[in-house]
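User: I've been trying to design a sequence by hand for this structure and keep getting stuck. Would you show me what you'd pick, starting by listing the structure so we're on the same page?

Assistant: Good idea, let's start from the same input. This is the structure you sent:
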């Protein structure tokens, strides 16, 4: 919240409107900011973030749009709020963003959010995203590394194959070793 507050204060030029949105406890006022015409992005972001932290699902659509924003701090604040929102649509939206090849440059925060959510969609989406990042000369190594780390944190045996493939990539090998070590070994059949 502190970094978001500092950033929106800068973006707003220290406006009284910004201070009011930071101080208000009125969720209806915050929700109104999301739909009011002419509101600047910083105001919409602040309102959505505060509503998300409060568990108010009116923030969902705005937070998903911010999760896919070109500005990493906006993505990070949206992911933080979405992780606390408790909306059942969040994992599906994060999976769609993480696996969208047209938006892969912005997939880092959706990937991290999927790991934090530990939802049924998390492992399949991280596997799909990582498989695509294992192509030669793929420029999205940070996304691939987040997938490897996320799959390790989730500890799901379905990730074993793709993590084994990640071992062949020097930038991912060490993380893949650690991720594989976190996946429970198969039990021998009796």
């Amino acid at each position: 919240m502190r970094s978001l507050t500092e950033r929106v204060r800068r973006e707003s030029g220290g406006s009284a409107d910004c201070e009011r949105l930071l101080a208000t406890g009125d969720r209806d006022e915050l929700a109104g900011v999301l739909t009011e015409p002419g509101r600047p992005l910083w105001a919409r972001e602040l309102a959505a973030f505060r509503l998300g932290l409060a568990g108010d699902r009116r923030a969902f659509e705005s937070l998903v749009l911010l999760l896919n924003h070109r500005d990493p701090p906006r993505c990070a604040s949206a992911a933080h709020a979405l992780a606390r929102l408790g909306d059942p649509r969040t994992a599906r939206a994060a999976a769609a963003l993480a696996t969208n090849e047209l938006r892969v440059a912005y997939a880092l925060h959706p990937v991290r959010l999927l790991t934090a959510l530990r939802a049924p969609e998390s492992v399949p989406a991280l596997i799909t995203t990582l498989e695509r990042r294992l192509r030669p000369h793929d420029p999205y190594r940070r996304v691939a590394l987040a997938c490897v780390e996320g799959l390790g944190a989730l500890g799901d045996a379905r990730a074993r194959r793709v993590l084994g493939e990640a071992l062949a990539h020097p930038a991912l090998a060490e993380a893949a070793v650690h991720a594989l070590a976190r996946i429970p070994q198969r039990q021998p059949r009796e």
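That's my pick for every position. To get oriented when you compare it with your attempt: The longest helix spans residues 72-85. The domain at 1-86 is CATH 1.25.10 (Leucine-rich Repeat Variant).
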